[in-house]
Amino acid sequence: MRVIFWLVEFLNNKGFATYSFKRTSVFCYFKESVMINRLSLVLFSFALFLPSDGWGQVTNEVMVSVPYKSKEYVGQPLAWDGKEVVLFRRDGRITQLPAKDIKNLEVVEDHYKPFNRDEMVAKLRKEFGGRYQVSPTKNFVVVHPPGSARKWAQPFQDLYYRFGVYFKSRGVELEEPPVPLVAIVLKTRNEYDRFIKDYQPGMEYSAGYYSSRSNRIITYDHSNQAKWRSSEDTLVHEATHQTAYNTGIHRRFASPPRWATEGLAQLFEAKGINNSRHYGDLSDRVNAQALRELMKLYQKEKVAGAVQQLVRSDEMFRTDLSKAYAVSWGVSLFLAENYPKKYVAYLAHDGDREAFRPHSEKARAKDFAKFFGVNFNNFDARMKTFFADLSKRQKK
Ligand SMILES: [Zn+2]
User: Domain residues of the chain, as ranges?
Assistant: First the structure.
């Protein structure tokens, strides 16, 4: 079988959204992943299933089997760099395996075949054993301490539905997730600490996270802790990331701008956005913590120019994390309130970008300008007025 290669510069920006209780405020932070880091990858497709619309977007869907350490790994090949192959596994995880010659990989199916719900349930039961219960909903499979599925699994599904309503009412239909979405709620903080140490080191302050590599949310049962309200926010925040990445709002491995991903997840923490049917006022749509942080920045006159910086690059998330979060939320709320249809259209447009391709600062700015104009001074001034008014109203 003939194999066709395309050379692709792959961005190194694959990582993890993580929720942290460091300080009293609530942050997600991003951990640079070692995966596929700084490699020039070669996307490939088998000739039989070549996409007709150019390279980059891997629209062929064959599944191959890759032998490694006496195991067989099955999945759709996404990329290859001459040494390793990146597989989209049947459970939605991304796995990187040594493969010197992809011509030798055995094709096991002529299309990608994700696990169905029953297969995912069986897989997770095997992985987590009898100490945990595995409860499926329509779109999720949730691993949780034994007890009610209504308490543990249904909230994920409810949020998923409300996320869909939010986008549909603004003119964007969600895509169906390619695989059942996995959420893992461990019993204790200790267990969580041990788990993430193996799974994703360096997450000491996290309370839960979504990994775009595993496509899983992992958190623990906070329900007997004083910070239950915050942990609810954690779940909503991470479930927003996961849902957005699996329904076409963001695309895994296309490096969506972080202001857009973190802005959206923080928007959804507010009950007026994640449950707008019951909470209809503008004040309900405000993330109070984020507003406090943003108004502090306005007082110090540190917001001017920040939107443009965030639109062009994610650098601020490395240099000034709290500012990056606050301004990302601010610009997202400003757009969602004043240009609701354009805001979701922008997100969906970004979610349409091809995976494994660079997105330059210039291209990011151009995409933003297409929807919201190019005059950032004017944009900053209008956003400032919006938040000055909002802050006054919140205080009343
Ligand atoms: Zn986040």
Answer: 3-109, 254-396
